[in-house]
Amino acid sequence: MAFRKPGQILSQARGTLNRLLAHTDELVLLQRLVRKIVAGDIYVASLDEGLLHLITPSAALATRLKYSQKAVIASLRERKNPYPIDSIKISVRPDYFPPAKPERQTKPVSLTNAKHIAETAQYIEDEALRKALFRLSEHVKPRP
């Protein structure tokens, strides 16, 4: 049985999960486009029936967005954006930060496996792979 990534599972799912994934991709695309037009920490909160809701951490950036609103809408239409945008709502949330991605913790290997990996690494000709295997062998699980 092969393991699949969550994105693969969700993209093949029918119904609500697939629509949710597609909508999230649309919002991320819109966020990139808006940030190309007006530089700054601008986050897309939602898109509903032609109303694009943007969140910004500062009033100054919100004002800049407000004055650029017509240009943003026109530019999104020029880029053949498949999502019709008629108006923009701007919210200022100074404490808003998007959820941070959790940091990956390297899982330690047992002492026996670490020795096997280090022994195998000695015979690898590819230098980058050999160094990676040596680094992996250094993450030894502490004995209980």
Could you characterize the architecture of this molecule?
- By secondary structure, the protein is α+β, with helices and mostly antiparallel strands.
- It has two domains: 9-92, DnaA, N-terminal domain (GMP Synthetase, Chain A, domain 3), CATH 3.30.300; 104-144, no CATH class.
- The chain is 49% helix and 12% strand.
- The protein contains six helices and three strands, in the order ααββααβαα.
- It has helices at residues 6-12, 16-37, 59-67, 69-78, 111-121, 127-137; strands spanning 43-48, 51-56, 87-92.
- Strands 1-2-3 form a three-stranded mixed β-sheet.
- Strand 1 (43-48) and strand 2 (51-56) form a beta hairpin.
- Helix 1 (6-12) packs across helix 2, helix 2 (16-37) crosses helix 4 (69-78) and helix 5 runs antiparallel to helix 6 (127-137).
- The mean pLDDT is 82.
Morphology call: elongated
Q: What structural class results from the helix and strand content? A: alpha+beta
Taking the alpha carbons of the first and last residues, their distance comes to: 33 Å
Widest sheet, order of strands? 1-2-3
Percent of residues in β-strands? 5-15%
CATH superfamily of the largest domain: DnaA, N-terminal domain
| Portion of residues within helices | 40-55%
How many beta-strand elements? 3
How would a textbook summarize the main sheet? 3 strands, mixed
**Topology pattern, helix = H, strand = E:** HHEEHHEHH
Please tell me the CATH architecture of the largest domain by its name: 2-Layer Sandwich
Number of domains: 2
What's a quick, concise take on this entry?
The chain has six helices and three strands. It is α+β, with helices and mostly antiparallel strands and 144 residues long.
